[in-house]
């Protein structure tokens, strides 16, 4: 066995197993396999034999099949029903049929290459073999019908049939009798595979028989018959065109079905991915401006959510999450539907701005990160939200549904993680990015493309149209949610991907099946995903900044006691105005309305009437209307005229007439007031209830302290302890970087070398550790130090795990051997008592130039 310049062994013969096929690959090809199937890398296989075994396990093969595109999966399904091994030409004929198909001929080499690179098939083009586990998963059986709709072969369907019955079928089909059942089955199989003779046989079939075959030809191939089959069914049974499998069940043999299909294994092969069509085209500036407006509205919605939960949000359910009632209240406060309210709440939680406070009466509240987030520029705040949404596995679209145990899924509760969500979101945005700027995608064409790239289980042989008619699978629902959520967040405007969203997407790196053609030990350090994401957010914020409206420092006061904000306001102005007035409507311009209650709220917060007059005069582009000035003065004149303190509670006022008016009002009966003095009333209610009751009656009381001072009411901002954002739940092992791939390939090569290197001794059977005495081990080690030769050793570590290694001893002393370990590609020290034995290698040159330790290499 020779080796190439990269150190990869090149087998001069046809590989007899997947392990031998992997052994003949280059390092770059092995790295491609490990990147495409990262589950094979955890933990790193000790050698290529273990890698091949792991690549053939059911869980790994299922995962690999689920990540194939539609045509590559159709190719694998075709190999599952083809002879084993199959020639490339036979595979092409099964896919393209008798008439051929140029698109299939052009796409098939790529599909075969993809399957081979992912170790799902192996062998040369004249002997293609599908991995046994994949064949078992894809091959047809009564319990597992083939995705191609084909039934078992004639040989498989007649396995339990009596020889006499087989001879009857052969004779009735016009074939000569044979001496045994095997040759009879072979003769019948040859008949069904001969296009000319099969056509002649079918020309004699009654029309009803042909109709039966047409119903079974594209699957399912199994049918039910009565105890006494009709004449046209008997005609088919007598000639083997239908074969009985179980009592009352018949099947159309695979060879006969292929003839009826024109030689095609699939009804509708799809070698070319469907194109994503543009639905509408807008000027890019319009799409970007619309998306920027949506982005700013998203920021305002998040701020409104935390304004509503400023003093602490709803309680956490015992099972986790928000109750349905609290979600409805939040939706009303945000003026959105409940699904949208769930989306905004989940977005804030995903971004780490919202969490549970962890107290005894557990409630949701803003985290300290929210205050930091508020201080950042608007574009950076948006980038944080968009970046969190892109990578989150939590899926708000599931809120209101049921889990596998029929438990309701609540917002912020468990069970909302879907590991496919980040990949679907990135892919949807990437497909939108392939369209011209300003163009929106036709949703159905985009969904069809996604289904082609990752077909749902069991649908590889269906057309996109038939798949769309079925219940949408999870990835389809995720894609639909992505389109609507991207519009809400401002990633798209009028359905077109915005410029700042294009900047947010990372540069297209290697896909799951791509890898650099040259993987060398000296690789530059990988850019970590966190660093790449931070760079993308910075780039997106830079593009978005000039598109966002500039905050204003003024409002327009009107005579109807309203103020119009013609755009977004500076934060201090917006916060103060939200205290003085109530928001009446939102949109391109926000309308605030001044009411006695809102003015009283401002006075309760410690502001004086003069402060309100000065504030409005300083921030209004129009003169302060006289009705508004009168409203402020009138409320201020009454504010604090009544004083309430704790007895249970009391009311005091210098004006006896006001107290008389309160006592005479029927609405005050529930407060159970009675006069203690001409200017004092006592109440059987707490001070807070008394304040609310008198305010509902139209008065403007003020609370006072035990010392008689007016209490200033300010909202207490409730915050949680420091919290981290919820970590996404990955679909599987993360994609390895170039550095890890290089180290893994090197370790697998070295481990395989230790396993397969030829030994001079033949006493040990293959696969067993070498066994020598302590004296022989020490003597062989000392000799190898002098000659510089590499040795094969068996080593048992402190945990009792036995491994085989190839080492080049450098020094032996004090009961330890210091050697260059080719398996680990580093110098290590081993206790001699843990070495089970040692054997010399037959040819140290077989190490591919690694037979010498670093200090002895040329």
Written description of the protein model:
With 858 residues, this protein is an alpha+beta fold. Among the domains are: 154-260, no CATH class; 278-401 and 408-459 and 473-504, no CATH class; 556-623, no CATH class; 641-703, no CATH class; 757-856, SH3 type barrels. It contains 34 helices and 27 strands. A five-stranded mixed sheet has the order 20-21-19-18-22, with helices on one face. A five-stranded antiparallel sheet has the order 26-25-24-23-27, with helices on both faces. It has a four-stranded antiparallel sheet with strand order 14-15-17-16. Strand 9 (354-356) and strand 10 (364-366) form a beta hairpin. Helix 17 packs across helix 18. The protein is elongated, with a radius of gyration of 39 Å.
Could you name the key traits of this structure?
858 residues; alpha+beta; 34 helices; disordered N terminus; disordered C terminus
């Amino acid at each position: 066995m020779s080796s190439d310049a990269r150190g990869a062994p090149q087998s001069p013969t046809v590989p007899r197993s997947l392990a031998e096929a992997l052994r003949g690959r280059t390092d770059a090809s092995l790295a491609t396999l490990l990147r495409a199937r990262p589950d094979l890398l955890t933990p790193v296989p000790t050698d290529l034999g273990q890698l091949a075994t792991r690549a053939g396990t059911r869980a790994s093969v299922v995962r690999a099949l689920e990540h194939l595109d539609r045509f590559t999966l159709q190719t694998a399904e075709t190999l599952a029903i083809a002879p084993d091994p199959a020639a490339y030409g036979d595979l092409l004929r099964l896919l393209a049929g008798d008439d051929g198909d140029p698109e299939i001929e052009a796409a098939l080499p790529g599909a075969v290459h993809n399957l081979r690179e992912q170790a799902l098939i192996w062998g040369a083009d004249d002997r293609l073999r599908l991995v046994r586990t994949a064949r078992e998963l894809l091959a047809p059986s009564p319990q597992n019908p083939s995705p191609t709709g084909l039934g078992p072969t004639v040989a498989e369907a007649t396995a339990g049939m009596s020889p006499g019955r087989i001879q009857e079928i052969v004779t009735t089909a016009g074939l000569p009798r044979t001496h045994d059942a095997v040759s009879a089955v072979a003769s019948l199989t040859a008949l069904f595979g001969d296009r000319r003779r099969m056509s002649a046989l079918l020309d004699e079939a009654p029309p009803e028989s042909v109709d039966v075959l047409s119903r079974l030809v594209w699957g399912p191939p199994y049918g039910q018959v009565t105890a006494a089959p009709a004449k046209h069914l008997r005609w088919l049974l007598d000639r083997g065109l239908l074969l009985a499998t179980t009592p009352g069940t018949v099947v159309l043999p695979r060879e006969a079905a292929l003839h009826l299909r024109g030689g095609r294994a699939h009804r509708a092969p799809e070698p070319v991915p469907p194109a994503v069509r543009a639905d509408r085209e807008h000027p890019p500036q319009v799409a970007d401006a619309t998306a920027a407006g949506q982005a700013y509205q998203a920021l305002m919605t998040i701020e409104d959510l935390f304004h509503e939960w400023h003093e602490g949000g709803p309680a956490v359910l015992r099972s986790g999450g928000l109750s349905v009632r609290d979600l409805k209240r939040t939706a009303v406060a945000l003026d959105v539907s409940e699904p949208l309210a769930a989306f905004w709440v989940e977005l804030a939680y995903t971004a780490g701005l919202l969490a549970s406070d962890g107290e005894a009466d557990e409630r949701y509240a803003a985290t300290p990160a929210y205050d930091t987030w508020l201080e950042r520029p608007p574009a950076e705040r948006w980038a944080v939200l968009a970046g969190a949404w892109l990578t989150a596995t939590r899926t708000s679209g599931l809120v209101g549904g049921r889990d596998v145990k029929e438990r309701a899924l609540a917002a912020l509760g468990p069970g909302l993680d879907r590991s496919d969500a980040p990949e679907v979101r990135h892919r949807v945005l990437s497909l939108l990015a392939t369209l011209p700027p300003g163009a929106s995608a036709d949703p159905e064409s985009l969904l069809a493309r996604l289904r082609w790239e990752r077909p749902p289980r069991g649908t590889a042989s269906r057309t996109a149209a038939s798949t769309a008619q079925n219940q949408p699978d999870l990835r389809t629902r995720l894609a639909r949610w992505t389109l609507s959520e991207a519009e809400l967040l401002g990633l798209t405007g009028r359905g077109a991907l915005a410029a700042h969203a294009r900047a947010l997407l990372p540069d297209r790196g290697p896909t799951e099946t791509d890898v650099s053609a040259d993987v060398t030990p000296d690789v530059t350090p990988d850019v970590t995903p966190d660093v790449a994401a931070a760079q993308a957010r910075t780039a997106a914020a830079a593009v978005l900044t000039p598109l966002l409206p500039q905050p204003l420092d003024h409002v327009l006061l009107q005579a109807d006691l309203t103020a119009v904000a013609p755009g977004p306001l500076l934060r201090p102005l917006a916060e103060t105005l939200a205290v003085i007035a109530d928001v009446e409507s939102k949109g391109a311009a926000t309308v605030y309305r001044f009411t006695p209650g809102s003015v009283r709220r401002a006075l309760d917060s410690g502001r004086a009437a003069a402060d309100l007059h000065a504030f409005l005069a300083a921030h209004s582009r129009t003169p302060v209307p006289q009705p508004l000035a009168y409203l402020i003065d009138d409320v201020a004149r009454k504010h604090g005229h009544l004083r309430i303190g704790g007895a249970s509670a009391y009311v005091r006022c210098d004006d006896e007439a006001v107290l008389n008016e309160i006592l005479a009002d029927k609405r005050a009966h529930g407060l159970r007031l009675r006069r203690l003095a001409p200017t004092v009333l006592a109440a059987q209610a707490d001070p807070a209830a008394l304040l609310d009751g008198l305010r509902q009656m139209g008065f403007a009381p003020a609370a006072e302290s035990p010392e008689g001072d007016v209490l200033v009411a300010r909202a207490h901002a409730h915050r949680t302890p420091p919290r981290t954002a919820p970590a996404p739940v990955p679909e599987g092992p993360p994609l390895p970087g170039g550095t890890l791939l290089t180290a893994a390939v090197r370790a697998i090569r070295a481990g395989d070398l230790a396993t397969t290197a030829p030994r001079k001794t033949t006493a040990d059977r293959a696969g067993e550790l070498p066994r020598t005495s302590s004296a022989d081990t020490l003597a062989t080690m000392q000799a190898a130090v002098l000659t510089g030769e590499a040795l094969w050793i068996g080593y048992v570590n402190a945990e009792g795990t036995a491994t085989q290694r190839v080492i080049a001893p450098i020094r032996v002393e004090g009961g330890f051997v210091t050697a260059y370990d080719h398996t680990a590609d580093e110098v290590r020290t081993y206790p001699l008592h843990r070495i089970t034995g040692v054997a010399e290698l037959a040819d140290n040159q077989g190490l591919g130039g690694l037979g010498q330790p670093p200090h002895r290499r040329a």
